[in-house]
């Protein structure tokens, strides 16, 4: 997508510098910074510290990390060590393990001298695949928006609500939940997006920054406002992303998603989840018991980062001294609350039969 008229992906390979470049998202939406990722520790820090974030982008970043590891040492031992080092960075998003497994399976049969160029080529492939997957998700999600728009008065917008950032910053490009929004806007369909702030890291601000840069009408709202808007008929459709989806359609996403799904169910608002197939964990059936939930540092709760009236970026404490913070980063929305799943192959019910119908080539994996 575009920043000040220039197209960017969230990460890209600089062939002149022969190194990966990322947008350091810790500073957005107030400052646009690009970082060159040089060492394997840099890759791990980028994922852990959320310089890159979002399940698809984490997976692509890890693939480039494996490429660097193979350049430094193409041995089996180094490959396994890099796999373990990168896989330990964040526990919830399944794309991380998916990308690392794909790299190891692809590289293991090759001679050591072939591994470095093959690993880099595979990382490029994974990044390009993600872009096309997300474009396709948007095309299928656009059909939902078109149907709602057809029942509106001329010029009346389709009112969408989203939680966290499932935009192009969370993927390599397009985004998952935002891809239908971008495509609706480009098709001339009037839309307005309610953007949840998404405490504690206020990732809704990233979504607002994206939408604003693209010229899409939106409002930034508190996390607790969504239910009220639904009660008063001001939300036509909810679309969120996901970091891991079980084989039966339970959805793990940023903390607070479950509450939006409950409100949507209570008010008859369709609740859809946009998911690329690599986020489906076919080994897990029950999301509540089977998906590990990352517990992040309490400082994300006790402090907030923002722009001061003088233009600087500062962190301030919002809690009383000595008050501890609890910070589960994700929650699980049971499939019974999900209207449907928007994938690159089409839209299906949030059930094992629905997912298996779209992905018969993947569904044969036995649950753990």
Automatic annotation (TrEMBL):
Q: Which residues form the active site?
A: 243
Q: What does this protein do?
A: Catalyzes the interconversion of methylthioribose-1-phosphate (MTR-1-P) into methylthioribulose-1-phosphate (MTRu-1-P).
- Quote the protein name from its UniProt record: Methylthioribose-1-phosphate isomerase
- Keyword entries, A-Z: Amino-acid biosynthesis, Isomerase, Methionine biosynthesis
What is the gene called?
Answer: mtnA
What species was this sequence derived from? Answer: Leisingera daeponensis
The pathway where this protein functions is: Amino-acid biosynthesis; L-methionine biosynthesis via salvage pathway; L-methionine from S-methyl-5-thio-alpha-D-ribose 1-phosphate: step 1/6
Residues reported in the UniProt entry to bind substrate: 53-55, 90, 203, 253-254
- Family, as annotated: Belongs to the EIF-2B alpha/beta/delta subunits family. MtnA subfamily.
List, in alphabetical order, the Gene Ontology terms for molecular function in this entry: S-methyl-5-thioribose-1-phosphate isomerase activity
| Gene3D superfamilies, alphabetized | translation initiation factor eif-2b, domain 1, Translation initiation factor eif-2b, domain 2
Q: Which residues form a coiled coil?
A: none
Q: Where is this site: Transition state stabilizer?
A: 164
Catalytic reaction(s) noted:
5-(methylsulfanyl)-alpha-D-ribose 1-phosphate = 5-(methylsulfanyl)-D-ribulose 1-phosphate
Class of the enzyme per the UniProt entry, highest EC level? isomerase
Q: What is its EC number?
A: 5.3.1.23
């Amino acid at each position: 997508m575009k920043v000040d008229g220039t197209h960017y992906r969230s990460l890209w390979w600089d062939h002149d510098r022969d190194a990966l470049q990322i947008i350091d998202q810790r500073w957005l939406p107030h400052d646009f910074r690009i970082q060159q990722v040089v060492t394997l520790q840099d890759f791990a820090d980028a994922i852990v510290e959320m310089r890159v974030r979002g399940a698809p982008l984490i997976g692509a970043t890890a693939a480039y990390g494996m490429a660097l590891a193979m350049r430094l040492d193409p041995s089996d031992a180094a490959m396994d060590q890099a796999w373990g080092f990168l896989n330990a960075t964040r526990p919830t998003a399944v794309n991380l393990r998916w990308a690392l497994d794909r790299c190891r399976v692809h590289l293991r049969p090759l001679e050591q001298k072939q591994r470095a160029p093959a690993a880099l080529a595979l990382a490029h492939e994974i990044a390009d695949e993600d872009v096309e997957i997300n474009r396709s998700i948007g095309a299928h999600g656009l059909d939902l928006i078109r149907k709602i728009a057809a029942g509106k008065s001329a010029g009346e917008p389709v009112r969408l609500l989203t939680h966290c950032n499932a935009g192009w910053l969370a993927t390599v490009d397009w985004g998952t939940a935002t891809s239908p929004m971008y495509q609706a806007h480009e098709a001339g369909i009037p839309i307005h997006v309610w953007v949840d702030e998404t405490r504690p890291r206020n990732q809704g601000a990233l979504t607002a920054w994206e939408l604003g840069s693209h010229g899409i009408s939106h409002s930034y709202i508190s996390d607790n406002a969504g239910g009220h808007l639904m009660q008063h008929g001001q939300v036509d459709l909810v679309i969120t992303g996901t970091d891991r989806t079980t084989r039966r359609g339970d959805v793990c996403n940023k903390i607070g998603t479950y509450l939006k799904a409950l409100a949507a169910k209570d008010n008859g608002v369709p609740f859809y989840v946009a998911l690329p197939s690599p986020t489906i964990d076919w080994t897990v059936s029950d999301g509540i018991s089977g998906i590990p939930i990352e517990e992040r540092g309490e400082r994300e709760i006790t402090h907030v980062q923002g722009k001061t009236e003088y233009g600087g970026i500062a962190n301030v404490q919002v809690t009383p001294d000595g008050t501890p913070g609890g910070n589960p980063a994700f929650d699980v929305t049971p499939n019974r609350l999900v209207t449907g799943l928007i994938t690159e192959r089409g839209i299906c019910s949030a059930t094992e039969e629905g997912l298996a119908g779209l992905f018969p080539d993947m569904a044969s994996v036995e649950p753990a």
